[in-house]
């Protein structure tokens, strides 16, 4: 079966391509290379022994998306990662996020709705819950007003998919994941941000390597045990495996509804300071950091109730925070050597 992975050279996408190829799927990647590098293809080949098909494509270009599907009319499933993803950047440049994250989704669905049947896995986010009222967060938690344009694009994206699936032959699973971290244990692929990292862990590892002077911790006055924000940090390989299981569920017609939703996380919340201390433990390095004012768009805490994914999908996160941080550090050292 031929599977399209959009944003397949990105952080989560590349790890998912590895897991798909390990399961025998034929993979076609499209990526605009705006936040990654072609070298990721080499890493995928080293791990799996196979180079996936790749096309450089900006999904905002509708005519090129149409042409792609004419040439690849045998695609049976799509895993859609391609999107801008930084909360802070989305606050500063909302139109970039609305154009990139929504138009690309719409153009993909317009092509898929012409097929007799199509399976669609959507890379959603726990940001759709806003600041949830109860922890841990279940899939039934109310969708709160988004705290950032990024979060809003995920909410709207879910609505677009749901409305489209009702009247087409598209079946979809929306995967709301928490905070992916880490790297492949081989050290061949990992998080490869362009420029200044927007996510916590690559900023930590770059600071550990001396590329950054110090880490900024945004606020220590939150109502949490140590005053810093709490998130659910999940190893990217665990996350990638969940995408393959979700896709197989749709392809094997095991889904009970046209649209299904699953939280993907560990079920445990870790504070920013706990993540820093985990890095210090696995690396043996003292990390320089300073407390700075809160960042707009950040919520206090978010961690998942994963019962539904555990029971219905038969998936469970296996790696610990220390294991994820160790793999991220191994990757950082490799790419700087």
SSE order and pairing:
Blueprint lengths: L1 E5 L4 H12 L3 E6 L7 H10 L4 E4 L5 H10 L3 E6 L6 H6 L1 H19 L5 E8 L23 H18 L3 E8 L1 E3 L18 H9 L6 E4 L11 E2 L1 E3 H16 L7 E6 L5 E2 H12 L5 E4 L8 E2 L4 H7 L7 H16 L1
Main pleated-sheet profile:
7 strands, parallel
Helix fraction by DSSP (H/I, runs of at least 4): 40-55%
| Number of helices, counting only DSSP H or I runs of 4 residues or more | 11
Low-pLDDT residue spans:
none
How would you explain this protein's 3D organization?
The protein is α/β, with parallel strands linked by helices and 337 residues long. It contains 11 helices and 14 strands. It has helices spanning 11-22, 39-48, 62-71, 87-92, 94-112, 149-166, 200-208, 236-251, 272-283, 307-313, 321-336; strands spanning 2-6, 26-31, 53-56, 75-80, 118-125, 170-177, 179-181, 215-218, 230-231, 233-235, 259-264, 270-271, 289-292, 301-302. The strands form 4 sheets. Strands 3-2-1-4-5-6-11 form a 7-stranded parallel beta sheet, sandwiched between helices. A 3-stranded mixed beta sheet has the order 12-9-14. Helix 5 (94-112) runs parallel beside helix 6 (149-166) and helix 7 runs parallel beside helix 9.
